Amino acid sequence: MFLDNFSLTPETRILDLGGWNGSHINAILENSPVSPSNVYVADIDERAVNEGGERFGFVPITIPEIGRLPFPDKFFDIVFCSSVIEHVTVPKEEIWTLVSGRRFRDEAQRHQNEFANEIRRLGKGYFVQAPYRWFPIETHSWLPFVSYLPRRLQVPLIQLTNRFWIKQTIPDWYLPTMRDMKYYFPDASILEERVFGVTKSLIAYQRNC
């Protein structure tokens, strides 16, 4: 879907925001003309981004958890951000203790909107994917219908299932709705990634031309 919606050249400058070690963006760009030296992988994990630089030739950027990124406006042709924005919620030390759904939602929406504004500032175009809240299998826990539950039930349930379930997680995610994505990215088109006809993720994108 990314390749279908952007015209890429060797000079296209891409920021993979929250891209860990760059393996995901590397797989996407594998058969594209984009030069690895024009791909910047930014993450809070310094070890991971340095690994991406060594393995793929990307530019590693270690970033803070909050605040502006060290680039001028429209420095990148495209900001790519996959399954990251839903984790921009509240301080990590509050994840297990904040069980008020309304407070968690309000804080998450505020921080996600700030994050989206930074994406829009940095990129001439962007491609931002987030798991869809109403997909039956919650992608971070692999538990059915857990994203449908109020937070006061989600948190203790995940504490319990982390003891025996095949996938452990922390409940730091707020999955944006269609309304959220349209609010965060008012100038974007919204794509729906579907599996067996069911929406699995939402993608806000704006072309860089």
Q: What does this protein look like?
A:
The protein is α/β, with parallel strands linked by helices. Helix content is 30%, strand content 22%. It has six helices and seven strands. Strands 3-2-1-4-5-7-6 form a seven-stranded mixed β-sheet, sandwiched between helices. The chain is globular.
Q: In terms of topology, how is this protein built?
A:
Layout: H1 2-5, E1 14-17, H2 23-29, E2 39-43, H3 46-56, E3 59-62, E4 76-82, H4 101-122, E5 123-131, H5 151-161, H6 178-184, E6 189-195, E7 198-206
Parallel strand pairs: 1-2, 1-4, 2-3, 4-5
Antiparallel strand pairs: 5-7, 6-7
Could you give a short description of this structure?
By secondary structure, the protein is α/β, with parallel strands linked by helices. The protein is built from six helices and seven strands; from the N terminus they run αβαβαββαβααββ.
